[in-house]
Amino acid sequence: MQNQPVDYSLPGTCTKLAHIGRSSADHSGMVNVPVYRGSTILSGTLEEWESRKTAGNPMASYGRFGTPLTRSLEDAISELEGGYRSIVFPSGLSACTHTLLGLLKAGDHVLMSDSVYGPTRIFAERVLSRLQIAVEYFDPLDAAGMAERVKENTRVVYVESPGSLTFEVQDIPQIAQIAHSAGAFVVMDNTWATPLYFRPFEHGVDISVHAATKYIVGHSDALLGVATANERAWPALQASAFDFGETAGPDDIFLALRGLRTLAVRMQRHWENGVLLAERLRRHEAVEKVLHPALASDPGHALWKRDFHGASGLFGIILKPMSRHQLSTLFKSFKLFGIGLSWGGFESLALPVDSVTRNFGRRLPGGPMLRIHAGLESTDDLIADMVQALDAASRCANEDGEVACNILREVG
Ligand SMILES: *Cc1c(COP(=O)(O)O)cnc(C)c1O
After folding, report:
1. Domains in the chain and their CATH numbers?
2. Does 253 score more than 70 pLDDT?
3. pTM for this structure?
4. Which atom of ligand 1 is nearest to the CA of 223?
5. Separation of 184 CA from ligand 1 center, angstroms?
């Protein structure tokens, strides 16, 4: 596993990706389900109108509840995830927040892994707390510590593995067992692994959320979220989407469905490029530490190997302490890596991480942190670009004395 990723993806996945969510016979023979635009759906007769309105068939009565295109994507995702049903949202964050709102009420308690996606954490603090829902964090690496925090009113345990920015792999089966014995739902943000590399429902998750914006769309050209529930959690999830009027634009849904067709081949390549780049970076003199669970040296490696079928192209590095001028030189020297938010597109990115908020801060050694997304470019070109930029930063040491330091912000 050190150098050449092995394809652990499930047999038949590529075949499935080529064929799910299509029905050419229903669409004049077209290979792809066309973009349906529309609000009103007309019925020819009173009887047809009444049959559209029957319980369990809300999709057929109004555009906000989806179209054949929406259903194609939702059915494809729930099949890939191994869940009961899925529903789309206009962004990944919207899928995260509406899933929480669907399950929680005033007086409930939520346990959240300390390294969840930052905006989800901000939502919990700004919105859930305003609704008298208590939010508490747990150390992602300490399932026993999480068990101690479970209360009678704990309704949701929210996890993301590996964690945003710091990439801690969590013991999801153990966390799920603790949560379920307390009667709580387990919600997982599964964006990093995609439905191909982590099968949430086999590990006890009740609702799995994806920022489809990332790998599912895969080309940095649309924003979309999708949440998938098991049978127990589905009514609450669907009601939340409908009650808040959540819907997604047809072009973005089309792009996500198109992205799915190539998801397996893209992920294989992201995985490979990510591991090879991370291995090379680990040996660079300017690098203090690489945060990538697919590396044998990573503390999360054993759990990753046990539960995941592969790795995405997203990982972190912590540089040795360097001056602001050196850091600026590093970013200026990139020819292939773009500086920007999001990830999961075909292109490589390097993001300066300027704030990590944690209650359980394992103090990260060293200097500035970068989040790297290995895109689909030629491996040697990516490695060469990263190495030349780090070399350029190393060369201009001592040009000024101001040190760009570690940015972990502990709030606990
Ligand atoms: C990007 C991201 C989101 C939010 O997705 P958007 O489509 O940008 O709203 C949620 N969770 C994780 C882990 C992400 O990386």
Report:
1. 13-260 (3.40.640.10), 263-411 (3.90.1150.10)
2. yes
3. 0.95
4. 7
5. 24
